[in-house]
Amino acid sequence: MDNLKDMKDEVLVMTNASDGNTPHVVERIGQDGSLKTRPLAKAKPDGDFLKIDRSESILESFFSNFKRQFDNPSDFRFYHLPAELLANAKELAALFRNPEENKEMLGEYRLEPEQYATKQAEELKQASATDESAPQQSTKWGMEQVDWQQLARMGITPESLGEIGTARLLNGHESAVLNLKTNFEGIKIETPACIRLVESPDGKPVLNIECCKQRPELDYYFGNEIPDRLMKENLLKTHNAGSTIDLTIAGGKEETCLLSLNPKTNRLHHIPVSEIKIPSEINGVTLTENQRLDLSFGRSVLVENMWSERHQKHYDARLQYNVCKGGFDYDFRGLNRKVEQGQSQSEQREIIIPKKLKGVDLTDEQVNALKAGKAAYVEGMSDGNGGTFNAYVRPNYEKMKFDFFRWNPDKSRKQSQGQTNEQPKQSAQTTSQNRRVRKSEKKGIGASL
User: Fold this and answer.
1) Are residues 183 and 237 in the same domain?
2) Residue 11, SS3?
3) Minimum mean pLDDT among 95-99, 365-369, 378-382: which range?
4) How many C-beta atoms lie closer than 10 Å to residue 397's C-beta?
5) What is the mean pLDDT of residues 380-405?
6) Looking at the structure, do residues 9 and 91 belong to the same domain, yes or no?
7) What is the CA angle 412-417-422, rounded to 5?
8) Less packed terminus of the chain by CB within 10 Å, N or C?
9) Which structural domain, as residue segments, surrounds residue 371?
């Protein structure tokens, strides 16, 4: 499928029943869990908002502390929304103010805080399950084993970490981004960093500090070039390379490794494939040899019918090994949207159709085609890098986004070629419809699978 791009940049929208469900777009989440927002009605697609497709770990930390931070958490609702739709911000604001009337439409965009709490619960369960030597202890280390005086000198206390943050630290997991305070020769220094406890040779916990970088370095890692563009795209999107890479790290020995990006610190981490231990069973499901092999090579694997003790029900998730966590990422996106037999996707879900798409005002004919779930040919769309491109656009009801195609996906390629040849010739900045697009031509346009 020649699929040019889906609208993958999404923003976080929140409403509060106590103020009439006036929608706000989240600009950033503070270290203390506070939110900086802007009214949705005043938002624009090019605004500087939190992009949640690449910041899932931030959402995990925020939602895990959400109920503790607010007196009436049930008053709040959260939604993920393609940034492109902010071009119709005023119309959207009216939808969010009436959540019950627009329940079916908004339901497909709603985020459930419980989902992210489940991910952290599964990670904590994984860590505690590995400590068979201390079955009655819920964490890897006890509070008395941690040098809290050392942490206090940096402004970190159990109270500032919170219950979940402290439990993660005691299980060897990395903290959220903290503002560490130090004093160097009388000069007070504050730096954003993450902390975690690692096991020393004598079995005691030792503090490890990882300072944050302004941006990730994805071209080289310890002198090793990372030439694979898809690998870099995966690191930015999912924080995992998605495949193996041969690295020469220590002693001049080349090893096949996995790479993951820590989105909180923007630093890469690696592990040799030979050191990865994939369990034979995860949450009540026995893995096949192919599943274990795929996981050890960094691929995303669908595991179905896992059991959640906390919720007392089965669930499905895509698992992928994350080097930074030393365990698995759980991806639930799209797995809870089931279509009843004999009912089409367009009948089951509704996508908000914008009046303007990537800088182009859509005609009534194009809007009606998209509302009907059909492809519409749109010319002169912005690629985000100063160029334009032409493509067939069609709603993707599974991802609740739009897909972009070189050929008309509603027809055979032969028919589509004939139809495309009748379209006006494109400018030098646009993409030819008759051949496969090279990545260098797409610039900011990423192919969605």
Assistant:
1) no
2) strand
3) 95-99
4) 19
5) 81
6) yes
7) 130
8) C
9) 345-442
